[in-house]
Amino acid sequence: MHHHAYLWTGPKARFDQEALRRPPHPEPPPPGSRPELIQRYREVAAEFPTSDLPPLETSYWLVKPSSLLQGTWAAPADAAAWLGDQLAAYTPRFANETQRDAGHLARLVTSATDRLGSGSDTAFGFYLERPSFLSLALVTCSPNRTRPDLPCPMGT
């Protein structure tokens, strides 16, 4: 088992494009469906696996391009240390003063270590100066507990 890290920052309006953050339904619209429904399905099917937008379900990071990987670690504590480094780097930009508290951030890192150690994924999101958003995710792989059918982006 190992853990992959993902980071996304961008405009909150782009983050809110939820259709592009969901995998397409396994079945396309039935024949005779409205043309706009068919077109929307095609757009989502083409864009979801290549988009850098954070998926709504954390495990789906595994189907995104491997170029989006920020790092991979075998030890949960090492993956959580990456999280801690990212939190430290972005803390001054957090829109919510409470989220800047060092104790709060330390608890997030401890929580991430515990979750990764149990085989779970972890993800955090923070509003930055308006209107930006930061998404941080650590995804357990080989296999992923939630979606064991998803392939490892590193081919292992």
The low-pLDDT segments are none
In the sheet with the most strands, the strands line up as: 2-1-4-3
- Total beta strands: 4
Structural class: alpha+beta
Q: How far is the first residue's CA from the last residue's CA?
A: 10 Å
**What string, H for helix and E for strand, traces the elements in order?**
EHHEHHEE
Helical stretch tally: 4
Give the overall shape: globular
Helix content: 25-40%
Largest sheet: 4 strands, antiparallel
- Rounded to the nearest angstrom, the radius of gyration is 17 Å
Can you tell me about this structure?
By secondary structure, this protein is an alpha+beta fold. The chain has four helices and four strands. It has helices at 12-15, 35-47, 76-90, 102-117, and strands at residues 2-11, 69-73, 122-127, 132-141. Strands 2-1-4-3 form a four-stranded antiparallel sheet. α3 (76-90) packs antiparallel against α4 (102-117). The longest helix is centred in the last third of the chain and has 16 residues, at 102-117. The chain is globular and about 55 Å long.
Based on the model shown, name its key terms.
4-stranded antiparallel beta sheet; 4 strands; alpha+beta; 156 residues; 4 helices
Give the secondary structure arrangement, pairings included.
Layout: E1 2-11, H1 12-15, H2 35-47, E2 69-73, H3 76-90, H4 102-117, E3 122-127, E4 132-141
Antiparallel strand pairs: 1-2, 1-4, 3-4
Helix pairs in contact: 3-4
In short:
With 156 residues, this protein is an alpha+beta fold.
